[in-house]
Amino acid sequence: MSFGDPNNPYGPPPSQPPSAAPGYGYPQAPAGPPQGYGYPQQPAYPGYPGGNAMPQSMPGLLVTARAFLYLISAVQIIGGLIWLYVAAFVNDVSNKADDLGSSSEDNPFTSIGEGGHTAAGLIVFFALIALGLAALSITLGVKFGRGGQGVRITTVVYGALGGVLGLIMLFAGMDSGLASAVIFPLIWVVFAAVITAAPVVPSGTAWFNRPRY
């Protein structure tokens, strides 16, 4: 029996021609999902609710609220210094009244001196409150850049209390019938409303919730 006969059914199968050689040049890339150009894809950075858009700068309403805080602090500082000057003046008048009333217990200058010292102490108290509020206004404005939820909540409460005080002054000015007594309280109420609303709107909330590295 000859295996060399190509028509022999019992012979070995004919040899297959060699497969086509790979293309010229570089070896074939393994099959797989398509890759992007250049470097591997970077994972997305964490963002805020509603998308990955991370606020890189302070929102405009917060910038306005910060400017209002600085303006209010300037008014509070000026008011505190004026009150301190008035307290010093009242105290000097009280001392003169004490000197004139020291000769007799029934001298009217004695009661004037005592009342003057009490008024001077009360005026100093209000002056210290104004200066303390000025320090708080400046601190909140400075903390807007790096502050978190504590600064946000304090600003909202501070603005709301200022708004209530402004409304009281506004109603009192309207009852007086004087236009000059309405302008300042009205401006104060507008400032307080902006300071209260700025940390509450979505852009302000996202700013104070942003990650800090």
List keywords for this structure.
single chain; 213 residues; mainly alpha; 5 helices; elongated
Molecular structure report:
This protein is mainly α and 213 residues long. It has helices at residues 60-101, 108-143, 149-176, 180-197, 202-209. Mean pLDDT is 78; it is low at 42-52. It contains 5 helices and no strands.
Per DSSP E runs of 2 or more residues, the count of β-strands stands at 0
User: What is the gyration radius calculated from CA atoms?
Assistant: 40 Å
Please state the overall shape, judged from the principal axes of the Cα atoms.
Answer: elongated
Q: Name the helicity range.
A: 55-70%
How are the SSEs ordered, and which strands pair?
Elements: H1 60-101, H2 108-143, H3 149-176, H4 180-197, H5 202-209
Helix pairs in contact: 1-2, 1-4, 3-4
Task: Please give a quick description of this structure.
The protein is mainly alpha-helical and 213 residues long.
